[in-house]
Here is the input.
Amino acid sequence: MKKILPLFSYILHPIFISMYATLFYLFVKEDVFTNQEKYFVLFQILIITILVPVLFFLLLKSTGHLSSVMVPETSQRKIPLILQCFLYILLVKRSIIISRYPELHFFFLGALFSTILALICSLFKIKASLHMLAISSFAIFVIGLNVHLQMKNPYWPAFLILMTGVVASSRLEMNAHTAKEIMLGLLIGVLPQVLFLYLWL
Here is the structure.
């Protein structure tokens, strides 16, 4: 089990959570959008939340500003988090607009506020688990969609809650975070999503 746990830190890396959330959203609202629109949305998410950050990471690593894809040092987090804020702003202003994708719009808006809080923590040299931030945000989003769309499907929320626990165990097993950093990341991820639930539930 100790050998398997670290895999979840890569499979459920924060960089992939936006894509997972978008895939889930399009899956549960499959009748609302055409296949062409779905592919277009996924392509935008792929470019903005995965490819651009990866290219930026490679640039920062080549210049010595980052040491690992896990961004272990608090001092190394500032630039990636600032970039992430701008990318989320781009998404909610230009791509995932409220009139067409209201639930997903508020998910990314919540992710933006979570990222800003994580950035503020890093400025004060406080380390919060970005893995926990991302997976807990996703879990709340899925729970919200389950209620909002009256899916009556307890399995997806239960699975995401389980995965949140698995990711926490993975980060602790890898000695990447303390229990306090895990809880802080969880709090930062959950609060904005819960607050925005009141606007779209």
Summary: The chain has a mean pLDDT of 91. The chain is about 75% helix and 0% strand. Residues 35-62 form the longest helix (28 residues).
